[in-house]
């Protein structure tokens, strides 16, 4: 659907054949005291195409265009957060912007998060596919 809206539907095989997945599980221990509201994962963008995240409690924030950090209130059991990442920005010739994000603690229990990183194969040259095919 995303590729279709960008006029890149015909390149779906190319991106899928260059893609593989890496997953990671993170346990953010609850912190009390003066460091309580400090960022647990500083602002960054991810390398790769997309990052799919499942969290047990809120804490993930994205930087909105107006400079505000927006809390991604998403803990429903049947939904996931999908962030656009750096290589997808290159592949779409900047049509999609890589999402700057961070993790700040909320709540009073450990935050558990599973990330599934969709990343290009190291042998694949990431470029706007329209340019690759001339
Ligand atoms: O734990 C999260 O929700 C996000 C983790 C993250 O941004 C990363 O590992 O790159
Ligand atoms: Fe990240």
Overview of this structure, please?
The chain is an alpha+beta fold and 134 residues long. The strands form two sheets. The protein has a four-stranded antiparallel β-sheet. Strands 2-7-4-5 form a four-stranded antiparallel β-sheet, with no helix packed on it. A hairpin with a 5-residue loop joins strand 4 and strand 5. The mean pLDDT is 91. The chain binds 2-oxoglutaric acid (AKG) and fe (ii) ion. Fe (ii) ion binds next to loops. InterPro entries: IPNS-like_FE2OG_OXY, IPNS-like_sf, Iron_ascorbate_oxido_reductase, Oxoglu/Fe-dep_dioxygenase_dom. Pfam families: 2OG-FeII_Oxy. This is Fe2OG dioxygenase domain-containing protein. It comes from Solanum tuberosum (Potato).
User: Biggest sheet: strands side by side, in what order?
Assistant: 1-8-3-6
Q: Which small compounds were modeled alongside the protein?
A: 2-oxoglutaric acid, fe (ii) ion
The termini sit apart by 24 Å
Q: What is the alpha-carbon Rg in Å?
A: 17 Å
| Residue runs with pLDDT of under 50 for 5 or more positions | none
Total DSSP helices: 4
Q: What is the N-to-C succession of helices and strands?
A: HHEEEEEEHEEH
Structure classification:
alpha+beta
Largest sheet: 4 strands, antiparallel
InterPro entries: IPNS-like_FE2OG_OXY, IPNS-like_sf, Iron_ascorbate_oxido_reductase, Oxoglu/Fe-dep_dioxygenase_dom
Domain Fe2OG dioxygenase: 19-120
Pfam families: 2OG-FeII_Oxy
Protein name: Fe2OG dioxygenase domain-containing protein
Keywords summarizing the entry:
8 strands; 4-stranded antiparallel sheet; 134 residues; elongated
């Amino acid at each position: 659907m995303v590729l279709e809206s960008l006029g890149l539907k015909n390149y779906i095989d190319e991106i899928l054949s260059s893609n593989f997945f890496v997953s990671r599980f993170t346990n953010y221990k609850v912190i009390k005291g003066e460091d309580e509201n400090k960022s647990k994962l500083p602002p960054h963008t991810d390398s790769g195409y997309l990052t799919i995240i499942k969290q047990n409690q809120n804490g993930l924030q994205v930087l909105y265009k107006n400079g505000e950090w927006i809390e991604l209130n998403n803990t429903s059991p049947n939904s996931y957060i999908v962030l656009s990442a750096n290589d997808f920005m290159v592949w779409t010739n900047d049509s999609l912007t890589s999402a700057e994000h961070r993790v700040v603690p909320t709540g009073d229990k450990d935050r558990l998060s599973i990330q599934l990183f969709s990343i290009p194969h190291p042998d694949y040259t990431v470029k706007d596919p329209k340019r690759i095919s001339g």
